[in-house]
Every structure is written in C-alpha cells, then in structure tokens.
Write a structure and sequence with these properties.
The chain is of the alpha/beta class and about 180 residues long. The chain is about 30% helix and about 30% strand. The termini are close together.
Amino acid sequence: MPIKATILDAKQMERALIRMAHEIVEDAKGIENLALVGLHRQGVPLANRLADCIAQFEGTRPPVGSVDITLYRDDLALLQDHPKVRGTNILFPVRGKHIVLVDDVLFTGRSTRAAIDAVNDIGRADIIRLAVLIDREHHEVPIRADFVGKDVPTSRHELIRVHLTDFDGYDAVTIEEKE
C-alpha cells in the first residue's frame, strides 16, 4: 500500500512518548502505585518505552506487564480457527494499582474493552487509564484515551501503520490508503 503521509517520525514519536510519560505520572500523582500494561503486540514495546521515560525523570521504573486480548475479543468467532494466543504476563498485583493500558492505535475501542476485561479477571485495579500513541477516532464503544500521542482524524479507507524499531527496525507512524 502506498504511503499517503508520515504522521510521526522517530523524533516526533520520542517527544510524544516523553510528554505522555509526564502526563501519566502527573495523573497518578507519582509512581508509587503505577503500573503499565501493554496490549500485544505493539503496545508492549510502547509500554516499556513509557516506563523507561518515567524512570529517567522519576529515578524508578514502574512495573510493566502485557495482556493478550485474543480470548476476550467480541469477534473471536469470526477469526481463524486457531487464533494465535501470546499470553498475558502481569507479574505484579493488580489490586490497588493505577493501571495504564498502552496500545499503539485507538480505532474502534473494542481492543481496549477486551483488555479491561482481561485485567479485571486478574484483579481489581483502583484505576484503569488508557494511553495510545495514535487516536484515529471511529470509536464503536464508549472508550476514550486518557493520554494520546497524536489525534489523527482518518477515513475508514485509510490505514494507520505504527512502525517500531522492535519489529520494523525504525520508528515512524504512517497513513496509507487501503487497496
């Protein structure tokens, strides 16, 4: 698919994550009960980057976990016969925590709803917030992001692609036309 525009380059992505990290700590009133949980796949490295940013200015890195929403999806019956399950890895108590779910793109909100259900099955957090690198609107459920790297109004005929060094060898966010 041809790239229509680059929304964020590596430097802009880094600045957005640093800003979001500051906003997260301010919202949590410090890092004492803060924990980040990345949604597989792209949300996990983004959660780790946010935790690294927080560690740089707070001196302590909040715990980071990962959540697999595959079995919580409302369209599970429409997926292939054997969906790939990556597993949830939350090695800290959820109870009493200020949990920030981290994902790359907020589109319909259905992934976030599934992640909230998955976290609630582990324990009852005091607060669950949402941090996304890109909010592209078109929400289908009443979900909104608390921390946003960039709002990008899009049409449904466009695709937002987040490229991360962890998977692609470089950092960028592009918008492409669906074929």
